[in-house]
Specification:
By secondary structure, this protein is α/β, with parallel strands linked by helices. The protein folds into 3 domains: 117 residues, Periplasmic binding protein-like II (D-Maltodextrin-Binding Protein, domain 2, 3-Layer(aba) Sandwich), CATH 3.40.190; 88 residues, D-Maltodextrin-Binding Protein, domain 2, CATH 3.40.190.10; 67 residues, Alpha-Beta Plaits (2-Layer Sandwich), CATH 3.30.70.120. Helices cover 27% and strands 32% of the residues. It contains 8 helices and 15 strands. The chain binds phosphoribosyl ATP and zinc ion.
Length: 285
């Protein structure tokens, strides 16, 4: 049977979470010491461990069928891959920053200036769209020190907390792109590989839905069942089970992580007691 090859960052910010995600999808594999390919034992999948910068090109050329990489790297390195699914981790932004003391009112202030970056393609497209002419210095690492050593007036780099910029005396002035890890695929997968991808996506979606949802159990007086049920969105309607103590029932349902605290408050006000909230491992609707 054909296998699907997925490229994952060998070592870095996305490695652990990407491998954990595959494991949560029930895919079993053993990481060998220093080996660059890993075979899954219970799913037709082979993992290629690569530098993140190489992943988009490998997927574009078909050496790998799938890849997990930051959107920032995809846009810089490949034009011709499919973005299949955002994965919700590795979140960051790609921003322009200038020296703290530089007067900055708008992009026009960068006209004729020098900007250091490791992402010349994304930056030049952005400058072109905004009709700014600036000189781009492409450097591969430690971009943030460029202004202090006199190499550039501004930098364009990945930011997450902003503390690196701050430490280097820089201020963030424009966000060019928001990025997170994304599952990408080659544009012309064989029919067999498309079927494997479909299976993988089904599992990924079940894992993602479960992460965003909690299972909730609560005790309610029978007279409040309708009112409290209307607070709980649930998948369908809540399960209601009588408690041994007369006049009370136990309600079971699922709630969205984002609405969690708001719903709990409403439930308490409506008279619910003994509220238990539990994680869900997988969720198939
Ligand atoms: O060795 P390899 O080439 O595979 O790895 P790498 O060193 O190029 O990449 P890595 O592991 O640092 O990052 C992988 C991906 O994680 C990036 O492409 C982004 O999509 C995403 N990501 C999320 C980040 C950050 N957050 C991040 N904070 N990538 C880099 N940074 C760096 C940034 O370059 C800067 O130096 O962290 C610094 C800024 O962090 P703050 O928190 O101080 O703002
Ligand atoms: Zn890299």
């Amino acid at each position: 049977m054909e296998k699907i090859k997925i490229a994952i960052q060998k070592k870095g910010r996305l490695s652990e979470k990407s491998l954990a995600l595959l494991a949560e999808c029930g895919i079993r594999f053993e990481m060998g010491m220093g080996s660059l390919t890993v075979q899954a034992s219970n799913f037709p999948l082979e993992i290629l461990l690569l530098r993140d910068d190489d992943i988009p090109e490998y997927v574009q050329s078909g050496v790998a069928d799938l890849g997990i990489v930051g959107q920032n790297v995809v846009y810089e390195k490949a034009d011709n891959v499919q973005e299949i699914k955002l994965l919700g981790y590795g979140k960051c932004r790609f921003s322009l920053a200038v020296g703290k003391k530089m007067q900055y009112n708008s992009l026009k202030d960068l006209e004729g200036k020098q900007i250091a970056t490791s992402y010349p393609k994304i930056l030049s497209k952005f400058l072109e769209n905004n009709k700014i002419e600036a000189k781009i210095h492409t450097i591969s690492g430690s971009v943030e020190i460029a202004p202090s050593i006199g190499l550039a007036d501004a930098v364009c780099d990945i930011v997450s907390t902003g503390s690196t910029l701050l430490m280097n005396g820089l201020k963030e002035v424009e966000t060019i792109l928001h990025s997170q890890a994304v599952l990408i695929a080659n544009q012309s997968l064989s029919v067999e590989k498309q079927l494997i991808l479909k299976k993988l996506l089904f599992r990924l979606e079940a894992v993602q839905k479960a992460k965003n949802t909690k299972y909730i159990l609560l005790n309610v007086p029978n007279s409040k069942i309708d009112e409290i049920s209307s607070i709980l969105p649930g998948m369908k309607s809540p399960t209601v089970m009588p408690l041994q103590q007369g006049g009370w029932s136990s309600l079971h349902s699922v709630i969205d992580e984002n609405d969690f605290w708001e719903i709990i408050e409403k439930l308490q006000i409506a008279g619910a007691q003994g509220i238990l909230v539990m994680p869900i491992e997988k969720m198939i609707i």
